[in-house]
Input
Amino acid sequence: MTFFHKDERLETLGDRVLQATWAEFRELAPNQIAMTWIVYDSPVFVNTGGAIRPEEFWQRSPRGFAYRGVENIYPASVVKLFYLVAAHEWLERGMIPPSAELDRAMRDMIVDSSNDATGLVVDVLSGTTGGPELPPAPFETWKYQRNIVNRYFQSLNWSEFTTINVNQKTWCDGPYGRERSFYGENFDNRNMLTTNATARLLHSIVGGVAVTPERSRSMMELMQRSLNPSDLEADPENQVVGFIGGGVPQTAKVWSKAGLMSRVRHDAAYVELPDLQPFLLVIFTEGKSHSNNEAILPFVTQKISEAMKEI
Output
């Protein structure tokens, strides 16, 4: 059972958005896009700064639409949201000590999507490091430790997390040594996420119930994106142009984490539009030609924004 409930009106609007997308981008196959769209009706119970207790929050089920929302897809840098939540959980429990260097790495992991920073966060979370290949017995111990983030998210008993895998670092050139061995010969142990799982994690953050209200606010501060054209021009690797933030007016507010590599272009965002209900949107697209296409995600977002006017 998902955290949102289906709604006939959203089913109609969501299908219309997808049909418009396929009409506009004819090379985008039906199995090359996945999407989860959550609408927050009044009274809005997210981005409240933690004013709603977790028990009450999870009793509320927002309306939602999903297309291929349970399909496992390589998430690229979207997985960094999961490592951010895990790091705050570890800190809150006292499992790792706070440090300025960890704070710097968490910031750079989300704000700049740094893979180097992510590597440090994963090492701190798991107590593992990269290096040469290991003998079988020590490698088994290493693998068990590296899977601690998976065990944490499985312990939440959220149905959306049943099939996901979040145990790999993110790379520029790729893994070597024990890191490469951990992927498996055919990369079967890659990170994998669904749009539904990503949406639920983001829903918990904007709901102020990820770890604690204070830590949720801290996470959102890192995720907030400037839509100011001068800021975007100054940062060619911003996570707005070519992503969800590129499909909303400059007057909107966007909190997001994008993912991009040679075969995928993804984004997960919470959006507040002037005079409309806020919404959460996760879009995953696959395909080498589509990963270079900066028009698809903004187009879908624009169509979603137009649909919000009919709700």
